Amino acid sequence: MQVLLVEDDPELAEGISVFLEGQGDTVEVAMDGNQADRRLQEEPFDFALVDVGLPGLGGYEVVRRLRRRGQSLPVIIITARDALDDRIYGLDLGADDYLPKPFELSELAARMRAVLRRGGHAEATRIVFGPLSLDPEGRLAELAGQPIALTAREWDLLRALAEADGRTVPKDRLQAEGSGNVVEVYISRLRPRLEVGGILIRTVRGFGYRLELAGPARRDNAG
Ligand code: CA
């Protein structure tokens, strides 16, 4: 796996690189945010580890930009700040996980495996729900022909909902696709992006969520 490590602490960068290379990964280190931003546009990395406090462009901005470009590679944010607000902020920007410093290298490896597992194994069949079309092989999503940028977690969630084809997906099943109790956060982030294309995410209270096509043609069972 080709990993971009964005870390300005040379000692930590060296430690992580040696460890990951020992696992068979190829690691490129970017010491500042601008370099990271440029390299992400030049190379198809499989994974990015991004420190928050960086010279030049900050780590959050690096992540924000890569998601805006529609890049869906898994991203873990590494930072000394471990306040919950920072964590949520990082996840909101499109990171797949968040690892507070200091951490054990084995913990980093476990988190990376977990994020990759959540990505699952893709089959080459498109999943279609109304104007929404998902390509599991490329992990791409299109809404009315326009690509939408999704994080690995958002992708998994939307895929589960689209595969259910309008049936309700229990919330605990969506939870099981990842760790932590942040399904609501992801749902609220997906909602406005789908609504512009005519797809609603309905909350079925106490149970879960389902996709629904917006519009006047409501199919009620009222008679
Ligand atoms: Ca730093």
Describe how the helices and strands are arranged.
Elements: E1 2-6, H1 10-22, E2 26-30, H2 33-42, E3 47-51, H3 59-68, E4 75-79, H4 84-93, E5 97-100, H5 105-119, E6 127-129, E7 132-135, E8 140-143, E9 146-148, H6 152-163, E10 169-170, H7 171-176, H8 183-195, E11 199-204, E12 208-213
Parallel strand pairs: 1-2, 1-3, 3-4, 4-5
Antiparallel strand pairs: 6-7, 7-8, 8-9, 10-12, 11-12
The chain binds calcium ion.
Describe this structure in words.
The chain folds into two domains: 2-124, Rossmann fold (3-Layer(aba) Sandwich), CATH 3.40.50; 127-222, Arc Repressor Mutant, subunit A (Orthogonal Bundle). The chain is built from eight helices and twelve strands. It has helices at residues 10-22, 33-42, 59-68, 84-93, 105-119, 152-163, 171-176, 183-195, and strands at residues 2-6, 26-30, 47-51, 75-79, 97-100, 127-129, 132-135, 140-143, 146-148, 169-170, 199-204, 208-213. A five-stranded parallel sheet has the order 2-1-3-4-5, sandwiched between helices. Strands 6-7-8-9 form a four-stranded antiparallel sheet, with helices on one face. Strands 10-12-11 form a three-stranded antiparallel sheet. Helix 2 (33-42) runs parallel beside helix 3 and helix 6 (152-163) packs across helix 8. The longest helix is centred in the middle third of the chain and has 15 residues, at 105-119. It is elongated and about 55 Å long. The N and C termini lie far apart (57 Å). Calcium ion is lined by residues 8-9, 51, 53-54.
